């Protein structure tokens, strides 16, 4: 999967990578030439007292060193450009693909894991590209070139190369094989830490309300300790690689000097040639060390690439149509024998649900907790697709509509309204980027939010924290309603969007909505009967099935489930 990911996203950077190969080749050849020049200075210059030769060869060494340095610098620059571009492209590809996911795929991976895969995992593969671009060509050329140059200096010492290089390779391969599962486990542990941390930060009020700080501290400590333990085990293995290489390097150098001194004494090799042999052996072992650095990164990068590819290869369950159909009718929603069942669930959430919401009318959906109200609402903007049956918007099955067209006709206020980091104005303009301040204030007026926004420092320019955590639940709901109003869609979907409002604010908001939504189809999911009592029709759900459709007065006589809901709320109100 690592090779496939690299092939797919490194293709645009073929020219910079080719330049890296050429520059590294030139720089490595220059590096291999330096010990030979140094040997000539010792054997032909210093031994004979030829100062002119020493100066001339010294000048060549400076020139070759300059070429080596320039090639290395430029190669690293091109390698960095390719690596950073690769990382940017992969992150963008993952982001674009995840935005096409339905709620089903997001739930399958989990938000913390998707974030880790698009940040930490991509970074690990990106670092491999950077390091490999800097060393991948150098290491084999230096190894082979160093071997050839060492044999040119003295064949009699070549057995030391035959012993030392395989010893390093075998030791590294044994260590690397144990690293692969550890790195894969480490990335999973990072997912767990991110999930626990996200839950604790998002639910800090609940944690404090139930005095669960000690428990959450222990939970995070356990996840953190698990990650630390895995990282330490991998780190201990990594830490053994360099000592092994250095041990072989030092033992080999001592052996070369020992046996080389005997050959110098016997007149079989000159001092300069022995010095060059030591340099070439060192270069070969350093090449092995560079290859080791890459090999150390490959297991973790491979595990990360597998996780990234898993996301990119996951096909969204909600796909746009190949040939979109244009809406044919007035604003409206119709459900025909709708059935929906989550993968792996024992029973469907919705069963044979059918009703119609026409333009200019309001339809309310009520039912006990778990009846399938929110799931039903999610089917209309195609957050998930029906298992059977069909959902029509403006006379066309939503699966045949272009997603942008579908979403452009719907104003959704979710059960848990989410505000983005920015200002009040930037959040409201999510509904309509071209809306002016006057339209924003008008929407706030209808949503009963004008008063508190005007009181905030900066008004429309008041800062909103991530998730809207610096405003109350009721204020967050009203801002979300205003955001939908700014859009002026043909269909409004309110998913229990008035639950955090007091009865007076609820009544004023619904009264203000009527003139604005006069020509629109309105679908309201609500828990409070007072919110839906004036609806044109009320759909009562029980265990995912429709058990009643009609107006408030009619359902009191014909639908026991609705009558029970009304009775329970009246009893609770009287008790309060």
UniProtKB/TrEMBL annotation:
Keyword annotations of the record: ATP-binding, Cell membrane, Membrane, Nucleotide-binding, Transmembrane, Transmembrane helix, Transport
Task: State the membrane topology.
Answer: Multi-pass membrane protein
Q: Which molecular function term from Gene Ontology is one that the record holds?
A: ATP hydrolysis activity
Q: Where is the ABC transmembrane type-1 domain?
A: 18-300
Q: Which GO terms describe its cellular component?
A: plasma membrane
Q: Which residue spans traverse the membrane?
A: 12-34, 54-76, 127-151, 157-176, 237-261, 273-298
First-listed, main subcellular location of the protein, grouped into a coarse class: membrane
Q: Which residues form a coiled coil?
A: none
Q: What is this protein called?
A: ATP-binding cassette, subfamily B
Q: Which segments constitute the ABC transporter domain?
A: 333-568
